[in-house]
Amino acid sequence: MEITWEQVLAWRLQRQFVVPRGDATASEIIGRLCGVQAQVASSAESAVGNRQNNPLPGQIDSALNDRSIVKTWSMRGTLHLVRSEEAASYLSLLASGRTWEKPSWQREFGATPQQIEDLADAVSDILYERVLTRAQMVAHLVGDARFAGMEQQLKSGWGTLLKPLAWKGVLCHGPKQGGSTTFTSPASLLPDWKGVPEADDAAPNAISAYLGAHGPATPEAFDAWLSRNSLRKTVVRRWFKEMGDALREVEVEGQTAYVLAEHADELADTEPDASVRLLGGFDQYILGPGTKDQRILPAEHRAKVSRTAGWISPIVLVGGRVVGVWDSADGVLTVKLFEGATEPDTDALETEADRVARLGSEGDLALRVER
After folding, report:
1. How far is CA 113 from CA 95, 104, 138, 144, in A?
2. Average pLDDT, 10 consecutive residues per value, the chain (371 residues)
3. What pairs with residue 217 in β-bridges?
4. How far apart are alpha carbons 74 and 371 in whole angstroms?
5. Which DSSP string corresponds to 214-280?
6. Given this model, what pLDDT does residue 141 score?
7. What does the alpha-carbon distance between residue 335 and residue 315 come to, in Å, rounded to a whole number?
8. Coil, helix or strand for 22?
9. DSSP letter (8 states) at residue 40
10. pLDDT score for 179
11. Closest C-alpha among 35, 12, 151, 164 to residue 94
């Protein structure tokens, strides 16, 4: 089965509710996208609202309150909103990498594998049927001699020592208390939580979800999205192989990749799409395949999207390809187009700029295009 990249990108736009927008709920969109990065709250709101005809204010908070989504450290060690029914599968695969046992991790963060196991046991007890702020949780921990000297790391907003505990299913973010972040256990927060499954059992669920939004893809692309390629390549390839007839191998302009068998015919029938879209920062459309994917983002322009300190710029799409970046300030939305990129239709850009203004409650935004 041979398909073109234009078909692939058009199909992804449809699967991810980018083109056309629809009436899916926040939790449905977050589930389809395999999570939404949530380190910047406004970017998460944009990722969801940008895929809806009529976005509702406060809908992410409502989904957190009804427990249909959960906030936790997941893919690539970053903070995500994940649909609750799928969270355990992603966490299981991340935990299977056991990155905290690697000498390089121990040298950088100063915690031994045994200390991480001890932390997991202690935090599991501390958070049982409780919601605590970071300061309250750390106060419980630092009185234990096993964690002597770890107070500053435990208090760090980066949460490095807490991420392995999230992957083990020991803690997740709880309801906010004023401006303070809180933690609780998934078992206490989520009514249907059954714990973190074995990785071999979790893999088909996670792979299916990923390919359903970001396919066709290779095992290496899946692992890069999930763990920054920290899992064993042989294991990831085995997971794909063991899915058997559930997957179909396709040829995309000379590259072999996998798609869910149930989506193969739909993908083959997809027509290329030339729609213009303005997506916000940290959007899953670009994070799913990764900013190194040159079929979407030319290598010479990658630094304009993937910036210092892990910042991912808002992007301009034409036909599913990134042709520029944008930002808004002082009543002006500035689009900066890449040299040699496909020119977006001006009227379509104006329409998208108006939508950005409505989503951000910024009033009217004047559009400025720089080439």
Report:
1. 13, 12, 19, 17
2. 96 98 98 97 96 96 97 97 98 97 91 95 96 95 91 89 97 91 96 96 98 98 97 98 98 97 98 97 98 97 96 98 96 96 95 93 87 87
3. 258
4. 37
5. H-SB-HHHHHHHHHSS-S-HHHHHHHHHHTGGGEEEEEETTEEEEEEGGGHHHHHTPPP---EEEE-
6. 95
7. 9
8. strand
9. S
10. 83
11. 164
- Given CA atoms 88, 94, 97, 98 in this order, what sign does their dihedral have? negative
Contact 214, 12 (CB under 8 A): yes
- Angle formed by the axes of helices 219-227 and 84-96, nearest 10°: 100
Report whether 70 contacts 81 (CB < 8 A).
yes
Token code pair at residue 309: 């300190």
DSSP per-residue letters across 319-338: TTEEEEEEEEETTEEEEEEP
User: 3-state DSSP call for residue 90?
Assistant: helix
- C-alpha 297/C-alpha 132 separation (Å) is 42
Using a 10 angstrom Cβ sphere, with 0-12 exposed, 13-18 middle and 19 or more buried, the burial of residue 192 is exposed
Q: How much is the pLDDT for 362?
A: 67
Sign for the CA dihedral angle at 61, 67, 68, 70 comes to: positive
Q: How far apart are CA 221 and CA 233, in angstroms?
A: 11
- Six token digits for residue 77: 């060690």
